Amino acid sequence: KLTWDAYYDSHEIYAWVDEITAQFPEIITTQSIGKSTKGRELMLMRINKPSDQQKISVFLNSTGIIAGLIIFQQDESCFFRDSMKDIHAREWITSATTTWIFNELLTNEAYAAELDKFDFHYVPVLNPDGLAYTHNGDRLWRKTLSEHNSFWRCFGVDANRNFDKSFGGPGASHDECSELYHGPSAFSEPETQAVRDYILANKDDIKIYLDVHSYSQLILLPYGDTSEKPDDYADLLEKGLIMEDALRERYETDYVTGSVPELTYYASGGSFDWVKGKAGVKYAMGIELRDLGHYGFLLPANQIIPSGKETLDGFLAIFNAIRDEI
Ligand code: 0X9
Ligand code: ZN
């Protein structure tokens, strides 16, 4: 039973998925979109209220476009290079925040109308192997747990350098011992293959792709592999700023919106770069959750619910703004 006053491993998160799916069988379906290197399930929740489907198909017929379909990709194993100076931990706040958000959307009557408007495709844990390893091995682990060279001692690939957009370009490492190792080839990891295949099968429906990370309180816009911006960057920036404002309202938590190199560093082979640049999903972006580095990855669990509340505010603001536009 998740209580959001502690951080959990994937088997506990999946137990919550099963429980809430049993509680709302008419709204939620789950499916496996693949298996991790170590054989863990890569689970996707579809949160799609039947009445919504009616309503959405009307929108589809009248405007040509359906209400937003949203994917949250969880990359459980990332950290900023400059955070090496801090006490390190993992991006545990990402799954904690998004599970809280979906629990709230489903169980708090105040959000019933919001559920009518969106068809969510939600991956609670994209890197369950890495997450398990942060709980029982190396708390600082960022990568997957795949082994690509039996002659060498290092393992794991940075899943967020493994997508096929400028694969092996700036901000990724050829060194398999690096935290930023891009892998032997694009989509070498079962975790990134699962996202690729699901997106390619659903790209005409998916209007928003949101990649959730921590930390730094940033709304990251494409691209990460180049300082060139997409032609429609102004649209993404406008929506990002709407999310930024909504995130600030409740607790005055400051988020900053901008392109990846403007706000951080070059990062090639990133998931939302591929989703926008190759799969053609217009609103593909990322968010780095709390905090600004005081606790960093060791964010106390008593911040999970506040993070959930403000992030839900931000998500609803941007999803509705994009839906209104469509
Ligand atoms: O470096 C990353 O993968 C992300 N930051 S993190 O500290 N969570 O590791 C930023 C990724 C930027 N996204 C893309 N280039 N698509
Ligand atoms: Zn990350």
UniProtKB/TrEMBL annotation:
UniProt-recorded Gene Ontology molecular function terms: metallocarboxypeptidase activity; zinc ion binding
An annotated GO cellular component: extracellular space
Domain spans labelled Peptidase M14: 6-322
Entry's Gene Ontology BP terms: proteolysis
Keyword list, A-Z: Carboxypeptidase, Disulfide bond, Hydrolase, Metal-binding, Metalloprotease, Protease, Signal, Virulence, Zinc, Zymogen
Active site residues per record: 288 (proton donor/acceptor)
Tagged with keyword Cell division: no
Cofactor: Zn(2+)
Family under the similarity heading: Belongs to the peptidase M14 family.
Purpose: Extracellular metalloprotease that contributes to pathogenicity.
Protein name as catalogued: Zinc carboxypeptidase A 1
Organism ancestry: Eukaryota, Metazoa, Ecdysozoa, Arthropoda, Crustacea
